[in-house]
Amino acid sequence: MQNKNEFVIIDEVEPCPYLPGETARMPLRMPLQPLTDRAMDQLLAQGHRRTGEFIYQTNCPRCRACEPIRIECAAFEFNATWRRVLNKGNRNLELRVGPLQCDRERVNLFNKHRRLRGLAKNDSDIDIEEYHWGFVKTCFNSFEIAYYEQGRLVGIAVCDSGEEAMSAVYTFYDPDFKGTSLGTYSILKQIEICNKNDWRYLYLGFYVENSVHMRYKARFRPQQRLHNGIWKTYH
Fold first, then answer.
1. Does residue 28 sit within a domain?
2. How far are the Cα atoms of 85, 86, 173, 176, 229 from residue 180, in angstroms, in the given order?
3. Strands (DSSP E) found in 133-217
4. Which domain, by its residues, includes 96?
C-alpha cells in the first residue's frame, strides 16, 4: 500500500545491477513533504536508500540477496590493519567536508571510476545534469567528503546525515591513484566522523554476498544486516 505522504515515480522490474541474470524491482518514491532527520533515521532503519530526491527499497520478484548493512560505530574496533590504512591516508590526503557540488571535475572522476572498475552500464558515461539529479538533488540533509592529493581531486563520498545515523550514499575515486586504498580509507573516515558527531550508525547500503563489487563490506566488523525486519549482528 502506498504511503499518502509519498508518490511512486517508477515501479517496474529491471535487470539486477548486482547479480547477472537476476531481476530487480526497486520502486522509486518521492516524498511529498520535507523529511526530518528523525524520519531519515527511521527510513534507513527499515532498509531504505536514497538516490537523488527519491527513496527506494528492494522488492524483487524472487531474490532476497540484498541485505541492508550498517556499522554500530562506537563498537567498531580499529585494528592494526585499519590503523595503517588511516595513518597512510591521513599523510597523503586532504579532506574537505562541505555541501554537495556538481561540476565537470566530479563528473569526469565519477565516469572514470565506473569505467575502470567495470561498473558502467553499456559503457555509457553520465553528464552533468544526470550527476546533479542523481547525487546533488536530495530529500535528506546531505553533504560530500572530497579527498585531495596535492590539490588534485581523487575521491568523493556522497553522504546523508540524520539525528543518530549517517548514510554512505555513494563513493567514487580515481582507480589510478596509488598509495592509499581510497575505498577502505573513506569508510574508516566516515566511521570517525560518526563517532565525532555522536551518530550511532553508519549505513553502507546493501551487502550482496555473491556480488564481486559488494563483498568488501563484509570486512568491516562488527556489523549488522537486516533480515526480515530484524537487524542481526555479525562479529
1. no
2. 7, 9, 11, 11, 37
3. 141-149, 152-161, 165-173, 201-207
4. 68-234
Locate 211 and state its grid cell. 556480488
Residue 171 belongs to a domain: yes
Residue type, 107: V
Q: Are 82 and 188 in contact (CB under 8 A)?
A: yes
Q: Which three cell numbers stand for residue 90?
A: 591521513
β 94-98/152-161 pair status: unpaired
In whole angstroms, give the CA distance from residue 196 to residue 40.
20
**Identity of the residue numbered 106:** R
Domain tally, the chain: 1
Burial class (CB in 10 A: 0-12, 13-18, 19+), 46: exposed
The 10s digit of each residue's pLDDT in 48-81 is 999 999 999 999 999 999 999 999 999 999 999 9
CA–CA separation, 35 vs 12, rounded Å?
Answer: 25
What's the pLDDT tens digit per position in 173-224? 999 998 789 999 999 999 999 999 999 999 999 999 999 889 999 999 999 9
Angle at 19 between CA 191 and CA 218, to 5 degrees: 30
CATH number (domain holding residue 210): 3.40.630.30
pTM over 0.90? The answer is: yes
Give the side-chain half-sphere CA count within 13 A for 107.
15
As beta bridge partners, residue 234 has 223
Residues 181 and 198 sit within 8 Å (Cβ to Cβ): no
Percent pLDDT > 70 in the chain is: 96
